[in-house]
């Protein structure tokens, strides 16, 4: 289904349920919480996950913030690992908590985005704390620091670290889910569908005796096929020449992510080589790298359940990216839900979507909504 067709439908929420495995049961409404835990500070702040290096040899430390909600004594808490967005080019694991970090604890920070923006993706996912799920926001090298697969190595290192230190933090190593938005959703999905793929595991941070697999994945409007972003964009949302500049040129974040930014290069060049099936091209290895970095090509029957959300008015990541991932999951027999707010942009997806996501996530992790 094309984005343009979705836009002709009503503004009401469109829900597509494609379940290869029947979903039963549900989450009952929880009692009101005495405190909104989305405003809590990290239980463990700036935790060092790994010492790595950027492509230029400069040292880089990967860190995470760990938030553990109040729990019954002796109870292990399930975990949501959150991967921030930002086009692989910006963003931080601290999210809006970075603004509170510098605030005077006695006075607070009344101007903090964390306090005023109820629609931020970071805050939407941090709400898992109010449902008895730990929230772990993780770090990764940006595309101006290192090229792929460094980013997926970093995120997998974070999941292994969480599992290795689960007992120390009071977490349940057997109930870990992952979520992300935009570029973060790309990495979350890539991790979820490549469990056991040694080419994408890396050894950053060690803990290699621990698995990086997850029980569930939430993908909010993430890229899934790096080769096809530009031609899949609805021209009524972004003009073709602008889409080509955004996604196909040497300046595109996807091109920078792959390190394919020399003269005459860029994702558009790789797509032409792939469409021609030209394995003799000196750039064929880059075509293969682009596919290795694209979740839609990596789906197997062993992938965990997915919740995918994508807005019908997304002018940055084509909705077809999510539809293609949904089809790949369904074809592989993997349980999945796709939900679309027909008027949502690349960003806030609406409360219906967010509440459905949270209810689904609670069920996947075995907690009450």
UniProtKB/TrEMBL annotation:
Highest rank taxon of the organism: Bacteria
Pfam families assigned to the protein according to its UniProt record, in alphabetical order: BD-FAE (PF20434)
Record bears the keyword Hydrolase: yes
Record keywords, A-Z: Hydrolase, Signal
Annotated BD-FAE-like domain residues: 118-329
Signal peptide as annotated in the record: 1-29
UniProt-listed PROSITE patterns: PROKAR_LIPOPROTEIN
One example GO MF annotation: hydrolase activity
Entry keyword Hydrolase: yes
Identification of the protein by name: Acetyl esterase/lipase
